[in-house]
Amino acid sequence: MGLEFISRTLRTSGIVLLISLLFGIYYFGSLPAIAFFSAGVWGMLNLMFLSALVRVAIRPGGADVGSTIAWMVLKFPLLYLSGYALLKVPGFDIVPLLLGFTIILAVIVLKAVGRAILKVDLAGDNTTHQSTGGAV
User: Fold this and answer.
1) What is d(CA 82, CA 75) in angstroms, rounded to the nearest whole number?
2) Exposure pattern of 50-85 as b/e (b: 16+ CB <10 Å)?
3) How many beta carbons lie within 10 A of that of residue 108, not counting itself?
4) Cβ atoms of 93 and 32 closer than 8 Å
5) How far apart are the first and last CA of the chain?
6) What's the sign of the alpha-carbon dihedral 4, 5, 6, 9?
7) DSSP assignment string, 65-131
8) CA torsion sign, 79 to 84 to 90 to 91?
9) Contact between 27 and 96 (Cβ < 8 Å)
10) Distance (Å, rounded) from C-alpha 104 to C-alpha 72?
11) What is the CB neighbour count within 10 angstroms for residue 44?
12) What is the pLDDT of residue 100?
């Protein structure tokens, strides 16, 4: 599991959030569905900012101090302040928000379990080739 795992997780989470927004509006109403969707988007932004912060702070050539500080200013005060603002919206119930905040974690766990069951990381490149009895 490399850095592409994060981008695939973000893509899958976005699709799950869009589908759940449509069904949530129909079955639960607009405010709970928007609360779930906005908290899920917040979780996706959190993962994107964290991944960008790790990429600029931990690299073989040394950390880029200016970029690291910029990502820290974006991630910690601004993102968490917006998360607090989501919690304080009068029409948003806490349960859809908590479910939305954790949707990214559920997608990560399900993708990791799926990769473990299918043994994708252990198989290597030999999984796409059939045995030809020595002939190439």
Assistant:
1) 10
2) eebbeebbeeeeeeeeeebeebeeebeeebeeebee
3) 17
4) yes
5) 29
6) positive
7) HHHHHHHHHIIIIIIHHHHHHHHH-TT--HHHHHHHHHHHHHHHHHHHHHHHHHTHHHHGGGGGS--
8) positive
9) no
10) 21
11) 19
12) 95
Residues across the chain: 136
Extract the tokens encoding 108.
């990560």
Are the beta carbons of 33 and 96 closer than 8 angstroms?
yes
User: 17, 25, 41, 35: which is closest to 91 by C-alpha?
Assistant: 35
Give the C-alpha separation, 123 to 100, whole Å. Answer: 34
Residue 24: closest CA among 37, 12, 14, 11: 37
> Quick one: pLDDT at residue 61?
81
- Largest interatomic CA distance in the chain: 68
How many Å apart are CA 136 and CA 58, to the nearest integer?
42
Q: Give the chain's residues under pLDDT 70.
A: 1, 123-136
